[in-house]
Predict the 3D structure of the following.
Amino acid sequence: MSDQGISEDSLNDVDAPKQSNLPKVLLLSAIVAVLIVTFVFLWGGKDQLRKVRAGYAAPDFTFRDLSFKDVSLSQYKGKIVLLNLWSTTCPPCIDEVPYFENLYQKMKGNEGFQLLTVVTNRGEDATVVKTFMDKHGLHFPALVDTKKVVYSRYKLTGWPETFLIGKDGIILDKFVGPKEWDSPQFIDRLNKLTKG
């Protein structure tokens, strides 16, 4: 056999071990992950990474009520808070407001409890919300979030969503969709929580 057709360089290429692409893939993945985290922080801040579910702190906010007074969630620390996020143009929200009114009337003497609702803007301002409340005979506290701040902070998927918040500001429960908030079982639960 003749070795004339094979060069020394081609022999070296055959003997050389192939390099793996794994380190390049891992490096690229790490860079992409860092870019995503950086984007989230720059775009939405750390609130975008915060968990909003039972066991985590309820994000604070300050909005105006219908008498144009600033109200913050944090001012109710030490009380059990039922926080409802809704809209006057949402049919399931409209269906559940009578239950909130009944709950409010039954619980308003309990100093350890606060019902707080926030209208998360779908074009509503304080005048629209007040007109809606008056039309439906509603007296429970309603705040107006004209910029959907609470929608973002609480990572809502729609309306209505309701959060039961403990005296320490930690979310105890999250409810999606309308409920009968004035049921004897739920009122009993609230009364037990306010005494505990």
